[in-house]
Amino acid sequence: MRNSWKVAKWEIKRNLKSKSFLISLFLTPIIFAIFATVPTLLSDSGEDQDSQPAQTTVYLNDEVGIWDQLEPMVSKSDDLHWDVELTDQSSDEMTTTLEEETRAVYIHLGESALESGTVDYYTSEEVPDSFQYEVQLFEQPLRYVQLERTGLDESEIQSAMTPISFNQNEVKMEAENDVEDEQAQGVEAFLEKFIPGVFAGLVLFSIAITGMMVFQSASEEKKEKVAEIILSSVTAGELMQGKIIGYFVLGILQVTVWIGMALPVALALVDYPIIKYLLVPETLLFLLIAVLGYLMFASIFVGLGATLEDSSSGSNFQGFVFMIPWLPFIFLGPVISNPESTLSQVLSYVPFTSPGIMILRLSILDEWPWVQIFISLAILIVSIWLLMKLAGKIFRIGILIYGKNATLPEIWKWLRS
Amino acid sequence: MNEVLSVKGLGKSFKNTRVVKNIDFDVHKGEIMAVLGPNGAGKSTTIRSIMGILLPDEGSVTFHNHDQDGVPRHKIGYLPEERGLYKKVKVMDILLYFAELKDYPLDRAKERALEYLKKFDLEGKENVSVDELSKGMGQKVQFIGSVIHEPELLILDEPFSGLDPVSQEVFKQEIKDLAKKGTAILLSSHQMNLVEEMCDRLFLIHRGQKVVYGSMDEVKEQYANFKCTIHGDNDRSMLEKIDQVERVEQKDDISILYLSSDVVVSDWIKQLPSNLDIQELSVDRISLHEIFVDIATDRSLAQEAGVVDAK
């Protein structure tokens, strides 16, 4: 174990001194940030050109006399960008004005509108569609005037104008809590699992990438023929373990740096108390799954790396193995839409998909299926043990074969030896 | 003699092919012991079995002065045949890594590394990245890596392959010096001329089996008989009739007569037939190189040698 640590320490030191690792360490989150923000920036920029949103000129022919009531409301509102000009011209007379202006509306609130209940308004080109909602503003005052004229008194009008609303009250086992509280708890419970889930996903993603680095490192060891020199000091098993541990630490370091860069940004942008939801017991289980996932992929990759001298010339078989960590992505849709389906459950038991799928399911499920979790973890741990044994066999032989890439039958032979 | 390593009855098969069998030899403190043989004879397999990189099917490898089971890795320096260095690291970093793997104190290692770099004409290269070194420089760094922890036993698999003559000389001198200081050295090579000058004892291996084993002087006495090379147009049958000639090789005008081991050269020359066509004549001992070539090509001498030795 001490020797494994020495190898691990070397791998860590070597990578931390290498420019390419450092560049990717700091550049990846920046690239992510660019990809995440640039599209929104670009789409915003069209409207951002003049910082003040365009004003709509509203020509109002207010024969009914409700404008005085509305005026303070309109001028204070941030959402309405109206320039109201009172006019007493008729619609025919306004036509030319509307034709000349680009963003103008003419509204006629007259007796006929009160009687028929229909208000005609005329718009020029380029009046946004949202205006049809904005114009609803006139409805209530008009209705008030309408009702007033029928001779109802104040209280009658009030009751006539109060809309009837329907409130949903779900009956649950513990029905003591009132509705609002329960909703808040629901959100909280969701976040309690979702945020650690996102965190674990990030950890898994990062260490899947460092898993690839384990592969490269093993392949390099073979290509640069250092393996045999190292094997005169440590055993093949220790070398393999050292690499797995070393890149694990690098992976964790990577996540730490990424999160260190992303968390302040996330805290600034999002109102939720992310840290509070991250420091929950659930995070531990998520981390355990992510670590197990890493161990599995790392052992696959370290064995695979020992079979390849030149990673660019990998055959179809090795290329296929490379796809394994990304398998869960294929099932992303079906699992999200139904995390309790048979497919989702089966995928949680298949070792290659279980880390990704489990993290995904547990982040969105309300109730954790503990039995499934334990079965899945058990399968995962047994698979890791097995894969490590196999990888050890492949590594031991493969790392000392020079000048060629191993073929599948050869690997099979080593496994059986 | 103070034995450091003993190999007894070593055998190893890959699939159904027997790669080495019945390998027996010792390596003593302060001596240079050479394992010689053509390519594919089983030298590297033997060495890898000693190092525990391969597990032998049969036989034993004993490290004296070492109580526990297993290979005392910290006491051994090993330069494998297939060797290289990590590319994008500094020379000093990789040397210190090798030392650390051997649990050698790092401050001492640093001192020794600088000494050796100076000795090998690489002074000031300690902070240079390995991928900027020439091939020869790289090999020197590998050599330093194998001796940095002052090993009791140094195992060198083809240490001279790919070296220019100047570097060969540097390595040879250093290996001799190390032996003088008490390091037990086991080296394998197919470059006989180099080995002949430096090794104390040798083990010749062919097709995985022992062919010759003994001290350099013994082997020379036993196998390195005299041969006479004659330039001139002579009939083979006539040459074969000459006394004490065991074998004749002819190519164009050159005939090589292999003489029996008890020959007294001056007497033998006197009794040469007068009708021989002699343009040039030379008598010298068969070199290790020739024994080696003979063995590698399965010629009669080899078989004889094998038989003699088997007695």
From TrEMBL, chain A:
Localisation: Cell membrane
Keywords, in A-Z order: Cell membrane, Membrane, Transmembrane, Transmembrane helix
Secretion signal span: none
Principal location class: membrane
UniProt cross-references to InterPro entries, sorted A to Z: ABC-2_transporter_component, ABC2_TM
GO MF terms, alphabetically ordered: ABC-type transporter activity
A single cellular component GO annotation: plasma membrane
Domain ABC-2 type transporter transmembrane: 19-391
Membrane topology value: Multi-pass membrane protein
Protein name: ABC transporter permease
Source species of the chain: Allobacillus salarius
TrEMBL record, chain B:
Signal sequence coordinates: none
GO molecular function, one term: ATP binding
Keyword Nucleus annotated: no
Keyword tags: ATP-binding, Nucleotide-binding, Transport
Pfam families on file: ABC_tran, DrrA1-3_C
Recorded superkingdom: Bacteria
ABC transporter domain: residues covered: 5-232
Database matches in PROSITE patterns: ABC_TRANSPORTER_2
Family of the protein in this entry: Belongs to the ABC transporter superfamily.
Record protein name field: ABC transporter ATP-binding protein
Organism: Allobacillus salarius
